Amino acid sequence: MFAKAATGALSPKDSMMEASNRAKEIFTKWRQKKMVPAAARTSSSRARGDDDEHHDRRPAAPALTAGETIRRSDRRLGVLMLAPALIYIALLVAIPFLLALVLSLTNSSAGSLEFSFVGLQNFKNVVASAVFRRASGTRSCSPSSRSSR
To answer: Does the global pTM surpass 0.85?
Structure first.
């Protein structure tokens, strides 16, 4: 519409009339689908003062009352809005965490692509080591650990 006015195919006045008619068509379709109240008016009709007393001033979207639920389309929109954040969290937190958990159950080492599953043996070795006990401040029940302190 406005491109036609910019190129000279339509006068600015004709372009505005075409835009206004198109907006009226869109609002008519929206009213038929009950997307806006039947009494909703365009800004151009308000500016002209068309039938002020025949239009009630209801809000376009009434507030939810007790017991009403959010429409399915609103729920879908909420999910779509959250999706990028959830994908971001999954890529930067969940995947590395799960990879570390899986690797802790293998005998893999840095720089090597070979590994095999060892289960909880890595954790048993760490708990049994003297370095771990010294760092955590705990003693084992063996007599050798008592005499070394």
So the answer is: no
